[in-house]
Amino acid sequence: MLNNVYIIGAGETKFGELWDKSLRNLAVEAGLKAIENAGIYSRDIDAIYGANGLAGTINEQENIGALIADFSGLSMEGIPALRVEASTASGAAAVREAYLSIKSGEYDLVVVGGVEKMTDIHGSGILEKMSSILDREWEAFFGATPAAMAALIARKYMNDFNVEKEALSMFSVNDHLNASKNPDAQYRNKLTVEQAMDSIPVADPLNMMDCSPVSDGAAAIVLASENFVKKNKKEGVKILSSAVAEDYLSVGSRESIYTLKSTRLAAEKAFKKAGIKRDDISFMEVHDSFSIYGLLELEDLGFAEKGKAKNLVYDDIKLNGRLPVNPSGGLKAKGDPYGAVGIGQVVDAYKQLMEKAGERQIKDARYALLHNMAGTGASSVVHILGE
Ligand code: COA
Q: Could you read off the pLDDT of 166-223 as tens digits, one per residue?
């Protein structure tokens, strides 16, 4: 049975403070770019999966699947269009649902799009909305925000493993350097480690330059079955594996606050299914909504022992290093529009693996690992893409 799944097109909007574009404008812009890039027609599309985290809360707009189909001009075709929600991992979760729908033989061609429009609410208002991804009764009710939770984790991690603040800042420095070469990134300024460490405090020990920004943006991809690819002579990138795992929502319930168990489990499953080794990975995109998570993710994805990621952040993770991390600029500098993030990672990896990443191109890129995480790590989705 031919049941491999391929990415045959990808497109995204710029990420940033996009006040002149609405939620629906962003979704349609990214979707049309992906469809055009794939060279397909609306009659080819079997289904649409729309990823979104907080439109009901921020924009007072639910029913995102129907909205996207309507404003893409696809409602008249009767194409199923459903929303997938898994907080900040909504994007990769939607990719996984679409992948499974093709794997099962139900569909041949699926468009997956993710969108978030977050900058319409400013200051503490948006922080309150973003904090709804935490456990409301046990965390957010007591004033915790995502930054505060990341700061608690960072403090204990730095203490237990003797990690200096500089190691966290280096993750952001790498993101900003890569984003300076990415026209779709929110922040394209290069950052020195001194600037990162001297930026204004947010939640001690984290500063502004340890935090992903508040972002608007959308990203979309077109997934196709092996049959469709062969019949229509399409080129694409194969999804070698897709895996998801969960941990407790509340950080206080976890076995260890600096172990991302969902990430560990998802990575193990993804490598097993893909049949490749960690050494085979050419580059990674990881969910570094706060710099501390970048280090934890390197460890829990299996690339460093616990407490030892500090040894990788100075050289190895650079674009020309042994293990390039976040060639897109990551969440810190490319941006963090919740529902779009996981799909934006695929858009960027697709460009790399098709050798179309311009000045960010990684030489001989063959296998990519993509990691998208919900909030403080309640859910993690890992995809491995390759030949
Ligand atoms: N990185 C780099 N620059 C940032 C930034 C960030 N994270 N956040 C804001 N800026 C810039 C703005 O573009 C603005 O620049 P300008 O003066 O040139 O226009 C300036 O800093 C002030 O922006 P403002 O929006 O007033 O900042 P703020 O103090 O309200 O917000 C943070 C800063 C760090 C608190 C905010 O980015 C934040 O809350 N980040 C975390 C998001 C989050 O919790 N995500 C959840 C992931 S699970």
A: 999 999 999 999 999 999 999 999 999 999 999 999 999 999 999 999 999 999 999 9
Q: What is the Å distance from ligand 1's center to 125 Cα?
A: 13
* Mutational test site, ligand 1, from 90, 120, 214, 334, max ligand atoms within 8 Å of CB: 214
- In this structure, the answer to whether residues 184 and 252 fall within a common structural domain is yes
Residues 276 and 306 in one domain: yes
Instruction: Say how many Å lie between the CA of residue 226 and the centre of ligand 1.
Output: 43
Mean pLDDT of all residues in 98-116:
98
| Number of domains forming the structure of the chain | 2
Same domain, 163 and 286: yes
Considering only CA atoms, which of 317, 269, 265 is closest in space to residue 291?
317
Residue whose token pair is 């858009």: 347
pLDDT value, residue 1: 64
CATH number at 227 reads: 3.40.47.10
* Structural domain that includes position 56: 5-122+214-238
Per-residue pLDDT tens for 39-49?
999 999 999 99
Q: In the structure, which protein residues have their CB atom closer than 6 angstroms to any atom of ligand 1?
A: 88, 123, 127, 130, 146-147, 187, 202, 208, 211-214, 289, 336, 375
Collect contacts of 30-33 with beta carbons under 8 A, ≥24 apart: 30/113, 30/114, 30/115, 30/218, 30/219, 30/220, 30/340, 31/68, 31/72, 31/111, 31/113, 31/218, 31/220, 32/72, 33/220
| 317/368 same-domain check | yes
293-314 tens-digit pLDDT: 999 999 999 999 999 999 999 9
Which helix (H) or strand (E) covers residue 245, if one does? strand 237-246
